[in-house]
Amino acid sequence: MTTEKPRSGRTTRRKFLLAAGATGAATIAMPQVSRAQTINWKYQSTWPTKDIFHEMAVDYAKKVNDMTGGRLRLEVLAAGAVVPAFQMQDAVHSGILDGGHGVTAYWYGKHKAFSLFGTPPSFGWDAHSFLGWFYHGGGEALYNELVNDVIKVNTVGFLYFPMPTQPLGWFKKEVKGPDDLRNIKYRTVGLSADLFKELGAAVTILPGGEIVPALDRGLLDAAEFNNPSSDILLGFPDVAKFYMTGSHHQQAEAFEIIFNKAKYNALPAELKSILRYAAFAATADQLGMAYDRYSKDLEEIKKRGVNVVRTPDAVLQAQLKAWDKVIADQSKDPFFKKVIDSQKAWVKRTGAYTQTNNLGSAALESAYKHFFG
Q: Is residue 327 part of a domain?
């Protein structure tokens, strides 16, 4: 009887392959990502603590904190916690704040083109189309040119959340025609200030928390902020009883999130991606939140004895004519004109599709009345 010798070479080779396979499986299961100590950033909104917009600033921060597993944590502060709302960009630029949440119209005093990235003219588009232009029609490159080359601000920014059309605002008397806007003391921001000046109003630019006290003291006759949820919390129903809905002054707007550029550039690539894509996730999530809350709070506004009145067509037409003048005046600035031309080209092309395919507001209104009366 012959005894077979152990095949030590084959056995060793088999053990090696099994070990290599196990190592490979471990590599797939646990991908290599950069590991670092937790980064804590101070991130201030431009909104009062109870405002739905501050809730949205908090929601964005939560998404970032969750997605990074705590490696990057945004500590949310309300307007005024470190600096006043209108000084937030300067604070992020200098590094006093690491980031902030607001709207580009607040930086309108530095260059009027900033407002084109938050409150552009009413070209027949909505905020969804506006964000489409920003991310797919060349808008983001123009925004970066404004920030980096024209103004030279040390920030990086993203736009998100397509805001529903903003009401004309809160008035002590019903607006029945364009003449009712003449000589009134009115609060707004951004290019809307130029628009209402063209309509004959005396415009004051104030942050949200200062509007209702000014109305109460008679320093303002009328004002707009943004939406029913913000407006009711700010206290508008206590000082004005006519809520005029529908307007061309801010047909399309979105939030702006900014970060200190030097600190942002020092982040690992995956954390930079999370800051960007968390904004996209928040767009979808917060739009649903807005429809839910805005509709409920509009009903509450009605219960408080406020007259909710649709803005007359004559006022809407007067606004469009005023936009013609504002655009012509501001387009004397080459960069402003560059952005306007880009926006017009986008809306002319994409609007041709949407107007061909969509039913339009009149048809949608007819369908709503059919089912709900």
A: no
What are the pLDDT digits (tens) for 58-89? 999 999 999 999 899 999 999 999 999 999 99
Alpha helices of the chain — where are they, by DSSP H?
A: 8-29, 52-67, 88-94, 127-136, 139-145, 191-198, 211-216, 228-234, 261-265, 269-303, 313-330, 334-357, 361-372
d(CA 90, CA 163): 25
Per residue in 96-134, pLDDT tens?
Answer: 999 999 999 999 999 999 999 999 999 999 999 999 999
Q: Which structure tokens are listed for 250? A: 């801010």
Left, alpha or beta for 290 (phi > 0: left; psi -120 to 50: alpha)?
alpha
pTM of the full predicted structure? Answer: 0.86
Q: How many domains, in total, are found in the chain?
A: 1
Do the domain assignments include residue 328? no
Q: Establish how many alpha carbons lie within 13 A of residue 315's alpha carbon, considering only the half-sphere containing its beta carbon.
A: 24
Distances (CA, A) of 244 to 160, 179, 227, 316, 355: 26, 15, 11, 12, 26
| HSE-up (13 A, CA, CB side) for residue 29 | 6
Is 69 within the bounds of a domain? yes
Per-residue burial over 78-98, b = 16 or more CB atoms within 10 Å of its CB, e = otherwise: bbbeebebbbbbebbbeeebb
Q: Which residues span the domain enclosing 49? A: 39-163+253-292
Question: What pLDDT score was predicted for residue 272?
Answer: 98
Q: What is the CATH number of the domain that holds 130?
A: 3.40.190.170
Q: Does residue 117 lie in a domain region?
A: yes
C-beta separation of 259 from 275 below 8 A: yes
User: How far apart, in whole angstroms, are the C-alpha atoms of residue 330 and residue 196?
Assistant: 15
